[in-house]
Description:
Elements: E1 9-13, E2 16-19, H1 20-40, H2 49-65, H3 72-95, H4 114-136, H5 152-187, H6 194-223
Antiparallel strand pairs: 1-2
Helix pairs in contact: 1-2, 1-3, 2-3, 3-6, 4-5, 4-6, 5-6
Amino acid sequence: MVFGMLDGVFFKLGPIPVDHIIFTEWVIIGLIGLIAFFATRDMQMVPRGLQNAFEAIIVFTYDFFTQLMDKEHVAKKWAPLLTTFFLFIILSNYSGLLPGAAGLAGFQPPTSNWNITLTLALITFCSVHVAGFAEHSVGYLGHFVSPSPLMLPLNLVEEIAHPLSLTVRLFGNIFGEEMVIAFLLFMVPFLIPGALMALSLLLGAIQAIVFTLLSASYIAAAAGESH
């Protein structure tokens, strides 16, 4: 394992270079996995401790992000994905709030990189069409020519616009926030205004909610009765 920052490489696993964004992403994924493991390894009928907290998160995400879905089985099917989106994005956003993280390699939020936000958006894009075909079979294709075959080009553009808007919205907000924090660290190395940190906490949560809620709405629209 060779550490270095040339060409954006944080360290290497043999011949495979790993940059700081991927490293942070692995840490977050590992953290979510560990929390899920320890919260569910000894399930009790009356939850307490970590199990209770984890169940509260599951209930919140299910109730909040699947409220747009008029079919209960669709909500249950896609709730795990939406919960994973929410947890990964909010932890990614908050990873940049660690002391000195904005200027420290290995701790930049993955969501401040458009490659990561594009990947999340493409997962949503694929999930939308999987949900549509699962609920309506080949009849799902009819919405591309609805209400008229002349609308096909516009409907296709709309489908492409969804992942692009998800990518740019999340990336732009988190990247811009990181630039502001990095600038303040340069200007005032040992003091970041508390108000800015509080605002970053709020914005990080809002961006996680917005991305997940939009993903839920796209899936709901594809699986809904209108198709």
